[in-house]
Design goal:
This protein has three domains: 3-207, N6 adenine-specific DNA methyltransferase, N-terminal domain (Ferritin), CATH 1.20.1260.30; 214-489, Rossmann fold (3-Layer(aba) Sandwich); 500-536, no CATH class. It is of the alpha/beta class. The N and C termini lie far apart (80 Å). α1 (3-21) crosses α8. α11 links the parallel β2 (264-272) and β3. The strands form two sheets. The protein has a nine-stranded mixed beta sheet with strand order 3-2-1-4-5-7-6-8-11. It contains 16 helices and eleven strands.
């Protein structure tokens, strides 16, 4: 598929999303449209898989009569296979196309029957109850199977009875039937397994919703260009990863971005506090073709109730909530994640608590990259103590990268990336990169272009010292600075002003004085002629 075709798909999906947009805010209609796309994806995957099984019999999944004994036997056999391979099951009558056609709209979104001819809410085209039952059946089909946790309450944020969709069941049905009809018109081309066009389009939509969600966007989305930098940093020197982990995974975009940088990722792990975002992350994984056995996303507070303590990961990426509050309960001093440091991160700023948590989970051959507010580089007290311990006692800090301000949705503060390794190839120094002035302004947002991304990554990988951009600081210099990592201490970006020629300035002033005297003489002569007082 060409890039133009991909962009066309993205635009089509965004246009359909706007069918709902007038009725609710960005994060609300996001949950509906992404849920509908996900349902269509599940249905198409189900149909393709079932047709593959039925190929020797010369029939199609949609040809099966569910009411006959033979049809029931076919469906039961396919169900068993599908639950093992796909993790869920849908009957032919539950497929997206079947439901969309039962609605009162054709593929162009136009009513099949005009309201003046027939009452709109006839049983033939009222599909709200059918749709709710199908979404429930997707979850119910997994009960008692290995994939149950991955599909549990996956559609709970799609409240089909919400008055935000319409005041009456009829008006809600009209909106939903129209959206399904428009989606039914789009070919996701899922049979072309080498392409991840739908996954890219899904990411595009998530990004579009984030741009309109303001401060809330930071809860679920890391800008794509920042995700790309983090992913490239933690995959440096690797073609395959046994595991990748994000302790604050949001929509899962960062995990999936890491997978694009290598040939293979065996397992994906993540944890997310927000229930709605947790659902979005699981959908995102499945829709990108990640098998349910290959991802383990949990919903809980990462610091207070960690869910993967027994695991160590080869790559870790994270964009935690900046300076979030946490309990900082003294009981954590006996927690293996924090006990060795002697101090806990302050309750008002959990930045280093997340860092400590991630270091605990990092494998000996692993790499981790985390986005933090700039204050984490130089704040004192407990944070300063933890920072010193990580550098002086453990020597895990590999690089510090300053990012431009205003590149994250919902906050304009400048941020940084800290890169950690337990086995550093360069144990005697830390690389500092100041990329804070390297960006492109687009409307009200600053963005990193591909050129800016490439420069950050190549500088990190080649470990170059570049004038006014990067510096390899010996550990002794960092110690001299009391483990303060504020980037201007290491990367001098001062621009000297052009030298001033004092003699030339003096001559210019002298010439101006001569011209001023001439003007004053001329004005005085005019005043004398007019018999008025001169102004000087």
């Amino acid at each position: 598929m060409s890039e133009d075709h991909k962009k066309q798909l993205e635009q089509q999906l965004w246009n359909i999303a706007n069918t709902l947009r007038g009725k609710m805010n960005a994060d609300e209609f996001r949950d509906y449209i992404l849920g509908f796309i996900f349902y269509k994806y599940l249905a198409e995957k189900m149909e393709i898989y079932a047709n593959t099984i039925l190929q020797p019999d010369g029939i199609l999944f949609t040809d099966i009569d569910e009411n006959t004994q033979e049809g029931k036997e076919y469906i039961e056999a396919i169900r068993e296979e599908a639950l093992m391979e796909l993790g869920y099951f849908l009957k032919p009558s539950e497929l997206f196309t079947s439901l969309a056609k039962r609605g009162n709209f054709n593929d162009d979104g136009e009513p099949l029957v005009k309201e003046e001819e027939t009452a709109y809410n006839t049983k033939t085209n009222f599909i709200l109850e059918d749709l709710q039952k199908i979404l429930n059946n997707v979850q119910n089909s997994t009960m008692g199977t290995e994939s149950e946790e991955d599909f549990d309450n996956l559609f709970e944020d799609m409240d089909l009875n919400s008055t935000k969709l319409g005041k009456s069941p009829e008006s809600r049905n009209e909106v939903i039937a129209k959206v399904l009809a428009h989606l039914n018109k789009i070919d996701f081309q899922l049979d072309q397994t080498e392409l991840d066009v739908l996954g890219d389009a899904y990411e595009y939509l998530i990004g579009k919703f984030a741009s309109g969600a303001g401060k809330k966007a930071g809860e679920f989305y890391t800008p794509q260009e920042v995700s790309m930098v983090l992913a490239k940093l933690v995959t440096t020197g690797k073609n395959k990863l046994k595991s990748v982990y994000d302790p604050t995974c949001g929509s899962g975009s960062l995990l999936l971005r890491v997978a694009k940088e290598v040939d293979e990722v065996n397992n994906f792990y993540g944890q997310e506090l927000n229930r709605t975002t947790y659902n979005l992350a699981r959908m995102n994984m499945i829709l990108h073709g990640v098998h349910y056995r290959k991802f383990d996303i949990k919903q809980e507070d990462t610091l207070e109730h960690p869910q993967h303590l027994e695991h160590r990961f080869e790559a870790i990426v994270a964009n935690p909530p900046f300076s979030a509050k946490w309990s900082a309960n003294q009981l954590f001093m006996s927690d293996d994640r924090f006990s060795q440091y002697g101090k806990l991160a302050p309750g008002s700023k959990a930045d280093f608590a997340f860092v400590q948590h991630m270091i605990h989970h990092l494998a000996e051959n692993g790499q981790m990259a985390v986005v933090l507010p700039h204050g984490a580089l130089f704040r004192g007290s407990a944070e300063g103590h933890i920072r010193e311990y990580i550098i002086k006692e453990k020597n895990y800090l590999d690089a510090v990268i300053g990012l431009p301000a205003n590149i994250f949705y919902g906050t304009s503060i400048p941020t940084c990336i800290m890169v950690f390794k337990k086995c550093k190839e360069h144990p005697n120094d830390i690389l500092f990169i100041d990329a804070s002035q390297h960006y492109e302004k687009v409307k009200t947002q600053n963005i990193l272009t591909q050129k800016h991304i490439d420069k950050i990554v190549s500088t990190y990988r080649e470990r170059n010292t570049l004038d006014k951009y990067s510096y390899v600081a010996p550990l002794s210099e960092v110690a001299e600075n009391d483990y303060n990592l504020n980037i201007p201490r290491y990367v001098d970006t001062f621009e000297e002003e052009a030298p001033i020629d004092i003699d030339a300035v003096a001559t210019e002033i002298e010439d101006l004085n001569v011209a001023l005297e001439a003007n004053e003489t001329l004005i005085a002569s005019f005043c004398n002629e007019l018999n008025i007082k001169t102004p000087f």
